[in-house]
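Blackboard transcription, Thursday session:
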Amino acid sequence: MKKAASIPADSVGVVETQHITLFQDDPLPLDCGATLSPVRVAYETYGKLNEKKNNVILVCHALSGSAHAAGYHSGESRKPGWWETCIGPGKPFDTNKFFIVCSNNLGGCYGTTGPSSTDPATGKPFGLRFPLITIGDMARVQKALVDALGIKQLLSVAGGSMGGMLALQWALDYPQMVKSSLIIAATPRLSAQNIAFNAVARQAILMDPHFNGGDYDSTSLPENGLALARMMAHITYLSEEGLHQKFGRRLQDREKLSYGFENDFAIESYLHYQGSSFVKRFDANTYLYITKAMDYFDPFSDPETTARRLKEVTARFLVTSFDTDWRFDTRRSKEMVRILNWHHKDVTFQEFSSPHGHDSFLLDIPHYKQTLATFLNRLYLEYCQRGG
Amino acid sequence: MKKAASIPADSVGVVETQHITLFQDDPLPLDCGATLSPVRVAYETYGKLNEKKNNVILVCHALSGSAHAAGYHSGESRKPGWWETCIGPGKPFDTNKFFIVCSNNLGGCYGTTGPSSTDPATGKPFGLRFPLITIGDMARVQKALVDALGIKQLLSVAGGSMGGMLALQWALDYPQMVKSSLIIAATPRLSAQNIAFNAVARQAILMDPHFNGGDYDSTSLPENGLALARMMAHITYLSEEGLHQKFGRRLQDREKLSYGFENDFAIESYLHYQGSSFVKRFDANTYLYITKAMDYFDPFSDPETTARRLKEVTARFLVTSFDTDWRFDTRRSKEMVRILNWHHKDVTFQEFSSPHGHDSFLLDIPHYKQTLATFLNRLYLEYCQRGG
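(Written on the board underneath:)
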């Protein structure tokens, strides 16, 4: 990994997304009963796999993320990976110590098989003929990737928001393989309010006249619907306090109210910008599938199954939340902690103070980063350095 | 007012919406600089005006309300007015004592002049040619109605949500006329988050292909956009706790997940129902104008003007909020109380406990109703009964 002059020294530098094709002979079984074959997976790695192959951390992305978690795709690029704040030399996910793997989730639109992929049965994009997927299915694909890379053990599975849900899923589904789960700003299940917001977002997409039952092409995209979905979701990613501090009732490039339907307030312009930039980089069908997978996530719904599965779990858990996150607030994290505690799991919980709401997990917050670093470093000392 | 057998004894019974045409000779001046003439106003009254005409309470409705605050439009109707819980014989707004007036707000779609009214200049509906209106303009029209009814003094101006904003506006604009303001679940200004939700709701309407720049007709309405706006707003009217209690993750008429894009969860069906029933009764242009009027409301923005105006105010204030209301939460009410206190106004503040969020102000909550009743009854004893 070479570094261009413009790239900060604490970045992993210029990185490339790699691709692998899995489930070619044995199709991927899905929770809904359908199968998929083949499944292409986009992934990136940072740092170096040690000889014992025991320094691996799987990083899981959230709703709109990609395999590009750290570094830059070119020396000229100004936009680093989505977790550049936390992954790199000397950062919590220290690439001098760890080998980091991040893949685009199943159903995604950044290189992994999803609704915009070609359906081998028809030669056309799947669209809504793509089967419904779950967080468990996503983990199953990640497991196949890790297997293909010759990795037998994960020092940690880590993620924020839906990435945290994936980290929990991993600990439950592959208990022998996971040394720790780092679950940030997540929830063991979506609340009625969470589902409600997802339902309205999906409705916005489904009702867009360009949606065409999911069979749109690049010349006619359901941009309005997807932009609306993103604008609304974006409100839930930020805290009321954060919005107040950043925008308040400040007017946008004007001295007086417009007395018209323009963007009078800065917050309106900001949201419109968020919506219109999102549609350039994200697929509407993927938005539908991923929100549904989140709605379905509920690994602790049945107490008996929970007890049986948690009995096998050996992972150490770090569960963290942010005090102004109202999408998945601290009570959701505590719900998870309570269940893990009840079943005698090794859980550390920490709530951090930040005005930035749900999005805090992506930001450069010293206390938060220090806590991740300490947790991961202890694992490193225990498992990797000892005689390593 | 006769009562049909099916109508409860504590209802005002069968009522009729009345209409009056105002500003025929002298046009209504608006804050935006434009004028309107004539202005038709739909209103209802309950109870009896006493001889001294000093037992009048003006009740102000919220975003989607109408003049029909209490009673039934027919003996067969099952749907009472929007504040039936609080208005009627023996209720807080006791029609045995008070003469209640409620009018549809300017810009509305229930009989008062608004964007769906005929523009006298073109003979066609105004649509987006209707001028932008403010909460102050709405109060100005109510003032003209009250004048036309021969009423010189209001014992109280009362309302919840935007109705509470109107109650505050009245105390400031007509300080000699208002004995008290009852401001429930309201705010002295919308926050950035409030404006953000309104902006997304408007975007949903403006982007609907049937919106047609506001020139739609009944054969082709922007129903999807308006339904989306309502679904999203509805989430903000209810509390997370309330949604959890009422819906949780309960499935809708099914034993198992659909693994499709149907309404798996009861909350989804409920929201879709809320959206589709709203479009049958509300006008999309009105939604645009009223949300904009709310965005603009900010009577205390300038400290000097605030001091000057509050000096004239003689009204007694009752400000109330609900602990799970996150649309206009308790901190917003307290902001208002702080300013009124600072300027030596007579303010009582009360927060009520209710799991039902913003919508609580419409519900039958004993402690809340008792507080309204006590406040209004004291005014009655002081002003109406004493030698009355």
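Lecturer's comment: Chain B has two domains: 18-189+298-385, 195-291.
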